[in-house]
Write a structure and sequence with these properties.
Blueprint lengths: L2 H31 L8 H24 L4 H24 L15 H30 L2
Helix pairs in contact: 1-2, 2-3, 2-4, 3-4
Length: 140
């Protein structure tokens, strides 16, 4: 299969996951605004921002990869297979309620989602750019 088709399929799947998570979050918000608190659950309280934002952070480098060759895609794919699970594990290990941290440096889960996502974007852009420059110099 062509690597651009792979990028398109991965991009589509991650956007669909993000869209469904966003629609579910809107449903929960509307349900809570109607003062029906029986629809609130653990997913909304802790993880909704993870299921909406994380796929968006992962799909952003895919748009950047469309203009480069398959060699660059394969290098980025190795990085993504390593970094994505680490990012998700790091998000899930963060305490939800940082009030109980006392003297330690505490962050909440939403901060960790955006911090790890932005770090992932920066590292992806660096890896893509450096590998593209390397292959361009190597082909000369």
């Amino acid at each position: 299969m062509n690597y651009r088709k792979k990028i398109g399929i991965i991009f589509g799947i991650l956007l669909i996951v993000s869209l469904f998570s966003y629609l579910y979050a809107l449903y929960i918000i509307n349900c809570n605004q109607a003062h029906n608190y029986s629809c609130s659950n653990l997913f909304f309280d802790e993880l909704v921002s993870m299921f909406v934002a994380t796929p968006l952070f992962i799909t952003a480098p895919l748009l950047f990869l469309f203009i480069f060759s398959e060699k660059v895609f394969n290098i980025w794919k190795k990085f993504a297979f390593f970094a994505t699970p680490l990012m998700i594990i790091g998000i899930l290990l963060i305490k939800v309620n940082p009030i109980h941290c006392d003297f330690f440096i505490c962050v909440d889960r939403t901060f960790m989602i955006f911090f790890s996502g932005i770090l992932y974007l920066i590292l992806s852009a660096l890896i893509i750019s450096i590998s593209a420059i390397y292959f361009k110099i190597k082909n000369r």
